[in-house]
């Protein structure tokens, strides 16, 4: 396969737009699917595809994904609805115990909108300015009113955090984010070493199989991912996980300040050990003792590292966030054990940013809208969430969870491996609280343009 | 030898299940029911008996015809599949099971063709070995530690981490005193039971999740 038909794939699937503002709208479809189909028909020509932007970025983009309940509301044939993967049919709320979304993260503590289970569709507007977002939203509202196809249950605004007057890639804890999404065969994007999978030589990198991202293509096992019938409905589509993650910045800063008193490596290094990168984005693996913008700014370096030279985790701890969610070659076999567990991430922060040193309260809602794209939610996202974020066995860390994302409930533990020097001491952080709380989310199907047309024109026929 | 990875043994056994039309429910269903209700915690037979790191029992009804160009084939029997990773020697392992949990082993295998029971150890061993398949591509995540060593290591890892967290900032002489006490206490601790839950996990894994 040489090239994908990018005009048939939603742009959101193929690339992060890097637009500073976003609004995620949640729709409940009309009782009569005829009206919803009319709405989808209106949207069809407006959806942003993966086509190249030869004339620069547009002022705004529009994308859509549907929950299983949404597809059912469109009255798709049962023979199609039943062929979707089980986890997608069940939805994220029903999977909460499998995901470790319990205690404070349990669905009963989610935002009101998610309680009913009535979310049928996610519509994403990304834009250059808030006015661009409003304009696109107003247009959508007009279409909704004109067709009577849905009602808006609510929406979530998100925006890049502004630093020194410009949009940045930092998140609320202050870490620079958004370095490494995987490369896939056929997906045309600016590639850099470290983005795909390790090649057989254990050093160079190559793209993952297309079927790890898109339905209808062979995956890393040479198989077609489980996909709904008919094939045309699935092909060029993907599954999306939406999670609203509230960040308890006050709790995080207080915890780090307290622990730093006991850590002779210094506060900045302690913060780096949590995530695996210094706050400016320098990977610990490449620069264990100081931030280095030369590395961060060099695409040949910023994601180009492995863990085989650091089997004890003395540079990047075994339990650091980065090493957990993409263990690279941590488990041996030149990374072969992780190639079917990779996910593509999208997202933007939401809420008011409070710079370090200024008073901040966790009663104010701020965090990140975190979205995952993958061909198999259970094999990819759910595995990463269950085994690598909420458990530590693969890294020989027993029951320890991801220090930053783990659902610790005040009982978490994070072991920082070190050496005999005062600059890099070992450390056990205990009584970790939840620095991140789940406030809602759902599993969605992000269809191709063809599939969206089939939905709009009532052409889904599994026979 | 492919059955061995380091100090671990990878056992694969296929035992034909009795095909008796007059049995209701059928023998394979009776095995399925028994297995489905076996405890998976420290009361499970493979936790009560020594040496097992990991084990799995399943019933294989038949090979499935997936369409052309494969040819349609069927098994003569339904099979009980038993896979286990355990410490060391096969004879020692089977004998330990036969002696520690004979009731459970007999309850499972009594539905299998030609099974002699555990009472006569020689016959039991001969039977199991005649059902054995050579394990190929055998992979053990940790293949140089015994079950006891692994359980003790996990216990030590947890205890040391707790000790460090609890005694941070303690002056050196007091820390040493505390550590010596802790060390003696740790040494005296009994080996944790296999499959025992040390910390409840707020997460559902394995079994019937999917």
Automatic annotation (TrEMBL), chain A:
GO terms for molecular function: heme binding; metal ion binding; peroxidase activity. The keyword Cell division does not apply. InterPro entries: Dimeric_a/b-barrel (IPR011008), DyP_N (IPR049509), Dyp_peroxidase (IPR006314). It comes from the Bacteria. Residues 9-145 form the DyP dimeric alpha+beta barrel domain. Its cofactor is heme b. Pfam families: DyP_N (PF21105). Keywords: Iron, Metal-binding, Oxidoreductase, Peroxidase. One of its GO terms (cellular component) is cytosol. The keyword Plastid does not apply. This is Dyp-type peroxidase family. It comes from Granulicella aggregans. The lineage of its organism: Bacteria, Pseudomonadati, Acidobacteriota, Terriglobia, Terriglobales.
From TrEMBL, chain B:
This is Uncharacterized protein. The lineage of its organism: Bacteria, Pseudomonadati, Acidobacteriota, Terriglobia, Terriglobales.
């Amino acid at each position: 396969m040489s090239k994908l038909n990018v005009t048939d794939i939603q742009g959101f699937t193929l690339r992060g737009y890097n637009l500073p503002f976003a609004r995620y709208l949640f729709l409940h479809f009309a009782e009569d699917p005829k009206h919803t189909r009319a709405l989808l028909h209106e949207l069809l020509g407006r959806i942003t595809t993966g086509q190249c932007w030869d004339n620069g970025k547009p002022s705004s983009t529009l994308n859509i994904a549907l929950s299983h309940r949404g597809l059912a509301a469109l009255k798709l044939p049962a023979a199609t609805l039943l062929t979707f993967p089980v986890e997608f049919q069940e939805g994220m709320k029903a999977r909460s115990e499998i995901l470790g979304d319990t205690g404070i993260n349990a669905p009963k503590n989610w935002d009101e909108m998610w309680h009913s289970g009535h979310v049928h569709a996610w519509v994403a507007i990304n834009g250059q300015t808030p006015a661009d977002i409003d304009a696109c939203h107003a247009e959508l509202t007009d279409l909704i009113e004109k067709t009577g196809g849905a009602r808006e249950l609510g929406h979530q605004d998100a925006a890049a955090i502004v630093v020194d007057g410009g949009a940045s890639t930092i998140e609320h804890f202050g870490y620079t984010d958004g370095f490494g999404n995987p490369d896939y065969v056929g997906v045309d994007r600016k590639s850099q070493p470290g983005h795909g999978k390790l090649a057989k030589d254990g050093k160079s990198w190559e793209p993952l199989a297309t079927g790890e991202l898109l339905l209808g293509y062979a995956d890393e096992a040479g198989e077609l991912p489980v996909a709904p019938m008919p094939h045309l409905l699935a092909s060029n589509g993907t599954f999306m996980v939406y999670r609203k993650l509230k960040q308890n910045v006050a709790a995080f800063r207080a915890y780090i300040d307290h622990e730093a008193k006991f850590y002779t490596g210094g506060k900045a290094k302690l913060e780096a050990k949590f995530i695996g990168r210094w706050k400016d984005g320098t990977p610990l693996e490449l620069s264990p003792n100081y931030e280095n913008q030369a590395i961060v700014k060099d695409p040949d370096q910023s994601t180009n590292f492995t863990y085989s030279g650091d089997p004890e985790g003395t540079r990047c701890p075994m339990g650091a966030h980065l090493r957990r969610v993409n263990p690279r070659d941590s488990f041996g076999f030149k990374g072969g054990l992780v190639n079917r567990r990779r996910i593509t991430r999208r997202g933007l922060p939401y809420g008011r940013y409070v710079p370090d040193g200024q008073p901040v309260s966790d009663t104010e809602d701020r965090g990140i809208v975190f979205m995952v794209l993958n061909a198999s939610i259970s094999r990819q996202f759910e595995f990463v969430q269950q085994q690598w974020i909420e458990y530590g066995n693969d890294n020989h860390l027993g029951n320890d969870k991801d220090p930053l994302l783990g659902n610790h409930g005040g009982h978490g533990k994070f072991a920082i491996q070190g050496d005999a020097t005062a600059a890099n001491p070992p450390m056990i952080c205990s009584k970790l609280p939840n620095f991140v709380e789940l406030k809602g989310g759902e599993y969605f199907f992000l269809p191709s343009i063809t599939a969206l047309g089939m939905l709009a024109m009532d052409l889904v026929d599994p026979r | 030898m492919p059955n061995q990875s380091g100090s671990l043994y990878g056992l694969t056994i296929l035992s034909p299940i009795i095909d008796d039309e007059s049995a209701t429910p059928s023998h394979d269903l009776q095995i399925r029911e028994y297995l489905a209700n076996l405890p998976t915690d420290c009361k499970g037979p493979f936790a009560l008996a020594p040496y097992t790191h990991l084990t799995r029992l399943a019933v294989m009804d038949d090979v499935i015809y997936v369409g052309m160009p494969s040819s349609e084939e069927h098994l003569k029997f339904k099979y009980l599949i038993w896979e286990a990773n355990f410490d060391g020697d096969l004879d020692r392992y089977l004998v330990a099971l036969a002696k520690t949990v004979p009731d459970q082993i007999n309850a499972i295998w009594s539905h299998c063709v030609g099974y002699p029971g555990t009472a006569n150890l020689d016959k039991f061993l001969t039977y199991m070995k005649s059902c054995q398949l050579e394990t190929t591509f055998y992979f053990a995540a940790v293949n140089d530690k015994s079950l006891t060593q692994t359980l003790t290591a996990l216990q030590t890892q947890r205890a040391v981490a707790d000790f460090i967290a609890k005694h941070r900032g303690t002056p050196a002489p007091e820390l040493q005193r505390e550590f010596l006490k802790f060390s003696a206490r740790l040494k005296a601790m009994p080996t944790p039971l296999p499959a025992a839950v040390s910390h409840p996990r707020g997460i559902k894994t394995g079994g019937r999740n999917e």
